[in-house]
Amino acid sequence: MGWLRSLSERIGTFFRLAPTERALFIRSWISLIGVDLTLRVVPVKRFLERSAGRPGRSERVAKDDVEVFIDRAAWLVMKAARFAPIRTTCLKESLVLHRILDRHGIRTELRIGVIRTGKAVQAHAWLERNGVPVFGYDPEDGYQPLAPA
After folding, report:
1. Distance from C-alpha of 66 to C-alpha of 70, rounded to nearest angstrom
2. Higher-confidence position of 13 and 83
3. Which DSSP letter does residue 130 get?
4. pLDDT value of residue 55
């Protein structure tokens, strides 16, 4: 019955979130599924073009609160990814957070980098704001950013 206690703790944690954070968690979870389905038929570049500049229904974040909002939204996206019924990736999580931040008036850039390990090439996605990584990037991983398309 350990799984029941774990489930109970997770539900309790969810309801201890502020109402706005619960809404952001649910939006992230749904968006992860939507992004997964969309990327099966639409290239990433077109996805970004279509989602860029959409008028946000959310309030803009005050300048003093931007960094805290980015950190909290990133945490909620990562938590939502753990419960998503799909296989999430750094790209899907980055796209979801990118859209959330954009709708709150926070502009970020999706970056994709690669690293060669032997004969294999691995890719990784992250977000930057004003040239500074804000989600999903650790310089020690050694990914080299590709030039923006």
Report:
1. 6
2. 83
3. T
4. 53
CB 84 within 8 A of CB 33: yes
Side chain identity at residue 130, one-letter code: N
For residue 144, report the phi and psi dihedrals to the nearest 5 degrees.
Answer: -100, 120
What are the φ/ψ torsions at residue 95 (nearest 5 degrees)?
-65, -40
Q: Where are the domains of the chain?
A: 2-107
Residues in the chain: 149
Helix (H) or strand (E) holding 86: none
Structure-block tokens of residue 128: 């930057």
Q: Report which of 131, 134, 120 is spatially closest to residue 71, judged by C-alpha positions.
A: 134
| Position 142, amino acid | G
The phi and psi torsions of 66 (rounded to 5 degrees) equal -60, -50
The helix-helix angle for 44-51 and 90-103 (nearest 10°) equals 10
Query: Residue 92 and residue 126: Cα distance in Å, rounded?
Result: 10
**Residue 103 and residue 56 in contact, taking contact as beta carbons nearer than 8 Å:** yes
